[in-house]
Amino acid sequence: MNGKQCAEVLATDTPESFRAAVERAAALLRAGEVVALPTETVYGLAANALDAGAVAKIFAIKGRPAHNPIIVHGASLEMLQSCVSVWPEVAQRLAAAFWPGPLTLVLPRAGAIPDLVTAGGPTVAVRWPSHPFIQAVMRECGLPLAAPSANLSSQISPTTAEHVRKSLGDKIPLIVDGGPAQVGIESTVMDLTCQPPRILRPGMIHAESLVAVTGSLAAGPAGSMHLKSPGLLLKHYSPRAKLLLWSWRDEADLKARAREAQMPLDQVHLIAHTRIPLRDGFGRVSVLPHDPAAFARSIYAELHRSDELGAGWIVVETLPDTQEWQGLADRLRRAAA
After folding, report:
1. Are 312 and 268 spatial neighbours (Cβ–Cβ below 8 Å)?
2. For residues 142 and 128, what is the distance between their CA atoms, to the nearest angstrom?
3. DSSP label at residue 335
4. Rg (Cα) of the chain, in Å, rounded?
5. CA-to-CA distance for 40 and 225, rounded, in angstroms?
């Protein structure tokens, strides 16, 4: 690869290959290296969260701005409690209800967490992922892992090992293939440093489920000089093609809008869920299920595919305005920014 390193890609589909990959990843992480690991949300670019030098490598590899904090992942309550200075009762209830799983909690940070992880702020975002591989790695190396998505900054998050290889394959020593991500978009993030708690980033655990545990949620955006969570930048999760969110009455209406916007139809890739046009004239028409969980598992892979096929524009059918779709709507709004 032009003299550059090429990432080793390890499978995990047998007990032997799973164990070998755990040992290899843990050894690299203990040595201060950065590796790509599967989680249930998206693939993560992981480093020892307690080693500022290792975390700095994540920022360099991704081209990530220093003001964008990183979520710390752990494999037990004890591991994550050691990363925070306060563990309130509401955190205990949320952890009991949703961990391991796609929920991140923002709490006052412990002194052991480097400034780089928190973008210099007083809080840290922590999560216990449910994917068995990253859990096994953290147990093996005994370390919490800083792990943003394993892609170049602001680009589409990876949901397969192949997505990671195409984006970062010449920048990291190891990619572990744990299969397609089963959630498909990033975790819900909750700020527990305010009362009542506030959702900073919506995800597939939505407000109604969270209120059942917390009793109430703060309304409106957070006001803070520091970003407390990743995923809050205006432009994020973006394909190379221009992404647009449109609704349309029928195929004729859709084609008329494209022509009015001077978009050659053969360069337009459509992602629809309810009003399904024929492919006639369009570069590609993809149909995703009208179900938020199934849509989430597929959407990033569809955006990657459209980029690989050379789309000029990706037109995504507007999503329903309901709680279940809020996390997906958030990702697509930022991708379209």
Report:
1. yes
2. 14
3. H
4. 20
5. 31
Q: Kindly state the tokens that stand for 219.
A: 């309304």
pLDDT in tens, 2-11: 446 789 999 9
Report angle CA 92, 97, 98 to the nearest 5 degrees.
Answer: 100
pLDDT tens digits along 27-75: 999 999 999 999 999 999 999 999 999 999 999 999 999 999 999 999 9
Specify whether the backbone of 199 is left (phi greater than 0), alpha (psi in -120 to 50) or beta: beta
Q: Are the C-beta atoms of 197 and 222 separated by less than 8 Å?
A: no
**Strand-pair category, 174-177 with 103-108:** unpaired
* Calpha distance 268→241 (Å, rounded): 9
Give the strand pairing for 268-272 and 188-191: unpaired
Specify the 3-state DSSP secondary structure of 140: helix
Q: Where are the beta strands (DSSP E) in 202-328?
A: 242-246, 268-272, 284-287, 313-317
Positive or negative, the CA dihedral 244, 247, 251, 254 is negative
Whole-angstrom Cα distance, residue 324 to residue 160?
Answer: 24
The distance of Cα 72 from the centroid of its chain, to the nearest Å, equals 13
Element housing 327 (H / E): helix 326-336
Chain segment 170-185, per-residue pLDDT in tens: 999 999 999 999 999 9
Helices and strands (DSSP H and E) totals, the chain? 11, 14
CB 73 within 8 A of CB 60: no
Tell me 123's DSSP state. Answer: E
Identify the helix (H) or strand (E) that includes residue 107.
strand 103-108
Name which of 43, 25, 13 is nearest 180 in CA terms: 43
How many Cα atoms within 13 Å fall on the side-chain side of residue 203?
27
Element (H, E) at 110: none
Closest CA relative to residue 42, chosen from 236, 181, 230? 181
